[in-house]
C-alpha cells in the first residue's frame, strides 16, 4: 500500500512538472585514453589539458536534457599515466567530458580494474569530488547499497540507470571493491529495486559483445531479450569499439516499445581502423502518456569522428558530416559510409537524426 501511494505521489509531482513533453536522453560510446592522447594533452608545466577535445560536439551534447558517456579508463590526480593495455588517465579528462555536457558517467567496463582496486577507488573519488553522477563501480558493498538504485529526475521523469560489464580483463576485484558484472539474477533484483524505489523508466547500459564486429552476437541478443522481459525501457551497449545496429522492439508483457542499441562505438580514442575512428550518438525520447505512465517514444542517431592531434589542436571529436580538414575527409567519408550501411540495413525503427538523413543519402 505504501509503495502504491508513493508511486502515485511521484506521478502527480512528475506530471505537474513535465506532462506532455518529451525528455531527450543522449548516449555516447567509449571515452578512451590511449598513450598518444595522454601525450597530446600534456602541457609544459606537467598538467593535462583536454579542453579542446569536445568543443565541436559540445552543443550537440548540451542540447539534450541529460547525457551519458562510458568512461573507459580509470582516472586519478597523479601519474604515471598510461594507455593500452592498462589504461590510467588524468582526472582532467573527466573535467573536459563534464564541461562538454555529460551528466552521467558509466564505469563498469573491462578496463575498470586496469590499475586494480586503487584505480577503481581513485576514479570513484574523482567523480564524487566533482559531484558527477556515476554508476557501475563502488568502493565497497556498503557504498553500492547506499547508492543503488541510481534514480535521477529529468524534467519531472524519474529515470533509473544501471550499468554492467561482461568482465574486467581477467583482473579480479580485491580489497572489497565492487564491480557490477553481468549477472541475470542481480540485474533482475536491481531492476525490481529501481521500480520499487519509484523509477518510472529504466535504462540499462551493458558492456558486452565482440570487439570490432559490426553485428551483435547471440549472447548480446539473448541478454537484450532478457532485459526486455524484465521491463526496462532503454538498453545501451558498448565495448565492440565499432557501431552495431539499433532497434525498437515491442514488449508484449509490458505492452510497450523498448530501445536496444547494441554498440555506439568509440566516442574518442586513438584507434585507427576505418570502423574504430568514430561512433554514434543516440538520442532517446521518453514521454509521459495521458495515463501518467512514462514510455519510450522514439530515437535517432548521429555519427561523430575523432581527428588526431595536429595543427595546434588536441584530439577532437567532430560531427562526421562536417569535417573541414581535407586530410581527414576521406577517412571520415569511409567511416560514415560503412556505419550508414550497417544502420540502413539492420536498424529497425531507429532513423538518422533530422539533417543527417539528407547527408547520408549523398554518400
Characterise this structure.
The chain is α/β, with parallel strands linked by helices. The chain has a single domain (2-360), classed as Purple Acid Phosphatase, chain A, domain 2 (4-Layer Sandwich), CATH 3.60.21.10. Helices cover 29% and strands 29% of the residues. It contains 10 helices and 18 strands. It has helices spanning 2-18, 35-41, 58-62, 92-100, 116-129, 141-147, 184-196, 218-229, 329-346, 356-360; strands at 22-31, 66-71, 75-76, 89-90, 104-106, 133-135, 137-138, 150-154, 157-165, 178-179, 201-207, 234-238, 243-251, 256-264, 266-268, 278-288, 294-307, 316-319. The strands form 4 sheets. Strands 1, 2, 5, 6, 15, 16, 17 and 18 form an 8-stranded mixed β-sheet that branches. A 6-stranded mixed β-sheet has the order 8-9-11-12-14-13. The longest helix has 18 residues, at 329-346. 47% of the residues are buried. Residues 1-19 have low confidence and may be disordered.
Short description:
With 363 residues, this protein is of the alpha/beta class. Helix content is 29%, strand content 29%.
Number-wise, the strands total 18
CATH architecture: 4-Layer Sandwich
Mean pLDDT: 93
Strand content: 25-35%
Radius of gyration: 20 Å
Q: What is the H-and-E element order?
A: HEHHEEEHEHEEHEEEHEHEEEEEEEHH
CATH class: Alpha Beta
Give the class from helix and strand content and strand pairing. alpha/beta
Named CATH topology: Purple Acid Phosphatase, chain A, domain 2
Poorly predicted parts? 1-19
